[in-house]
Write a structure and sequence with these properties.
The protein is mainly α. It is built from ten helices and no strands. The chain has one domain (31-210): Alpha Horseshoe (Serine Threonine Protein Phosphatase 5, Tetratricopeptide repeat). It has helices spanning 2-32, 38-41, 44-58, 63-78, 82-103, 108-123, 126-147, 152-164, 173-189, 202-210. Helix 7 packs antiparallel against helix 8 and helix 8 (152-164) packs antiparallel against helix 9. The longest helix has 31 residues, at 2-32. The chain starts with a helix and ends with a helix. 35% of the residues are buried.
Length: 213
């Protein structure tokens, strides 16, 4: 009798866990599908908050906070009012730190976000902030590539940085082209670990490659 009760309890728990997992995956996939249209729709804040709610409900999943941080980092990078950039970048830092805390380590994808955050901080005043944030930008890109040489996102972010760097400082459209080409090759061959794993960047890459036609 006791074994039967225990078995029934196990079945109920397993069913509940599966339902939770299915709900989590469904919510995440719905949000992830909106990532490529973030800038066009100007909904970075809403999507970040949606990912945060998922993370707060799940508690043990790092990806919701990772994606929330990506949304806030992108919002900081595209914000036209420089007086708002630091606060947005600081929120992105808080979220990526939480993601890494749950994961238990940094990884290639989180380092890409940290490079984006440093870029957003620097963009407030590039001339005075380069010495503070320039090294963080390049260090995080290098760490990301070292942790996963197949990841196209650090190469894409580096290419974008070069694209927007003035030619007199070694940047510009022509200087960035080889990096975009490399990012395209990596993107074509990259295999995300799961359906929820980071795979963003293709629409952005296509936009930049279109500038060379």
């Amino acid at each position: 009798m006791k074994k039967s009760i225990l078995f029934s309890a196990f079945i109920l728990f397993a069913g509940f866990t599966f339902a939770q997992s299915a709900k989590y995956e469904s919510a995440m996939k719905a949000n992830i599908s909106k990532l490529d249209s973030l800038v066009v729709n100007n909904n970075e804040d809403d999507l970040a908050n949606s990912f945060i709610r998922i993370g707060d409900a799940e508690k043990t999943q790092w990806l919701p906070y990772y994606y929330a941080s990506y949304c806030k980092a992108l919002q900081a990078l595209t914000e036209k009012d420089n007086s708002k950039k630091d606060a947005l970048a600081d929120k992105a830092t808080e979220l990526i730190t939480k993601a890494e805390s749950i994961l238990g380590k940094e990884n290639s994808e989180t380092d890409v976000i940290k490079s984006m955050i440093a870029t957003a901080h620097m963009m407030v005043d590039p001339a005075s902030r380069y010495m503070t944030y320039g090294q963080d930008i390049s260090n995080n890109i290098q760490k990301s590539e070292a942790l996963d040489s197949t990841n196209p996102r650090p190469v894409l972010v580096q290419a974008q940085n070069i694209f927007y760097t003035p030619e007199q400082y070694g940047g510009g459209k022509d200087a960035a082209k080889p990096m975009f080409t490399k990012a395209k090759q990596l993107m074509e061959n990259f295999k995300p670990e799961t359906d929820l794993s980071p795979s963003w960047g293709e629409s952005s890459l296509n936009y930049f490659l279109s500038q060379y036609k």
